Amino acid sequence: MTRKGLLLILSSPSGAGKSTLARRLMEWDPSLRFSVSATTRPPRPGEENGREYYFRSRAEFEAMIASGGMLEHAEVFGNLYGSPRAPVERAMEEGRDTLFDIDWQGGQQIRNSALGRDVVSVFVLPPSIAELDRRLRGRGQDSEAVIAGRMAKSRDEISHWAEYDYVIVNHDLETAFAELLTILQAERMRRDRQPGLADFVRGLNREFDAR
Amino acid sequence: MTRKGLLLILSSPSGAGKSTLARRLMEWDPSLRFSVSATTRPPRPGEENGREYYFRSRAEFEAMIASGGMLEHAEVFGNLYGSPRAPVERAMEEGRDTLFDIDWQGGQQIRNSALGRDVVSVFVLPPSIAELDRRLRGRGQDSEAVIAGRMAKSRDEISHWAEYDYVIVNHDLETAFAELLTILQAERMRRDRQPGLADFVRGLNREFDAR
Known about the structure:
Two copies of one chain form a homodimer.
Chain A: E1 7-11, H1 18-28, E2 33-34, E3 37-39, E4 53-55, H2 58-66, E5 70-76, E6 79-84, H3 85-93, E7 98-101, H4 104-111, E8 119-125, H5 129-138, H6 144-158, E9 166-169, H7 173-188, H8 196-210
Parallel strand pairs in A: 1-7, 1-8, 2-7, 3-4, 8-9
Antiparallel strand pairs in A: 3-6, 5-6
Helix pairs in contact in A: 1-7
């Protein structure tokens, strides 16, 4: 019996390193499935449909919500974002873990859904706001107004840190990545995530019987 | 503010490698405190009072129970075993984790005590009963009757595997030790075990205010 996959939710303010950590984790364990979000916002240069996001019209997106096809969704800066449900449930049945790079609103909705007990949630904090600002500007492709808006959203995002199972302060990427990996590996060792154990113990008892 | 220490409970049938894992973990992290049990059984050759066990008379042991000085206790093969409470509570206040090498009865009592939410419990299973038998005989210091009694106790112990948070099958020591270490490290990263985080986030908010 394969184990049921878990849902690893990674949240953080923009610029705290969450996306880099997520990418590193995907490289480390190719069996992980990354939950590609759907959004109604237009693609940025270099973004590809189905890779960074599923780019959908508002009508398409709202039809998915109406049919129960979204595990969670929220409106941010006038655009809808959400996690399609079907690929997540398929991965769980296959015993594959799914990685979510989503904000506190999405995290809250999935934790409070029927899949809540399969969630492991990790919040990534920046070492300082000065550093967060520096990383946001480092992208060099956004206007001051966009950065100011993102900083306001960051403060809002950070205010939800206490809703998460684990917290990592991203002082440096190597340490933060090692910590994230440790969390995933430990959670996989939880008794209730190892369904093969019941059979294994039955085997031990048969050995006792045969003595 | 130092974090409150957690209680890491390690249980397994005799011969599954629990004591070796515990010793390795103590070597890896000298800040861990090992909970030395008290017992009324007589010392074996090479055992030292205060190292393997606190060797106590039945009257002394029962006086400790009566005064609430035992976190848990149980009678096994006519001898009393128990975990003295005071050093555990002192370690918790100092932010040091305590490692318990105890059986399911002790684990159950501590999990159901007021300290239950600070417990992380790990059950170690042998790869097979044949291997368990081999390891028990490898000690070469016990009679067949003692071994038969210990195997019966092993079966009883194994029947409680499903009460633990985590399960490790000890196929080989290096892997089992790495898994144990991963569990301890992840549990230390749980949000509610990092009391300094609230202050840290207040600092981030002051930085936001000052912008």
